Amino acid sequence: MPSFEFPDDLLQAQRAWYDAYRQLAREGNPSQTTVLRRTLQRLSVRIATHQYWATVPGEAPAARMALKQQTWESGPAEARR
């Protein structure tokens, strides 16, 4: 798999997406789940429309998977502090 250099803001957005996803999986309060779903939608748009994807034409699908793998493996925000 090729190596990709992701900008910090894209890495942060993907990590924040995973953090919100993990919180949603644990959340029992319906009003908080709405907030978390909206957060996921907003972050999804930010990630999908990031200008970085234009810099890797033809490799964007592989780059997206590499971004997901790299940020998933870094774990929750609490573990990175």
Supply database-style keywords.
81 residues; elongated; mainly alpha
Write up what this structure looks like.
The chain has 81 residues and is mainly alpha-helical. It has 4 helices and no strands. Helix 1 runs antiparallel to helix 2 (30-48) and helix 1 (8-26) packs across helix 3 (60-73). The model has no long low-confidence stretch (mean pLDDT 90).
Strand content: under 5%
End-to-end span in angstroms? Answer: 29 Å
Helix-and-strand structural type = mainly alpha
The 3D shape can be described as elongated
Order of helices and strands: HHHH
Weakly predicted, low-confidence segments: none
Looking at how many chains there are and whether they match, the oligomeric state comes to single chain
How many distinct beta strands?
Answer: 0
Question: Whole-number average pLDDT?
Answer: 90
Helix content: 55-70%
Compose a concise summary of this entry.
The chain has helices at about 10-25, 30-50, 60-75, 75-80.
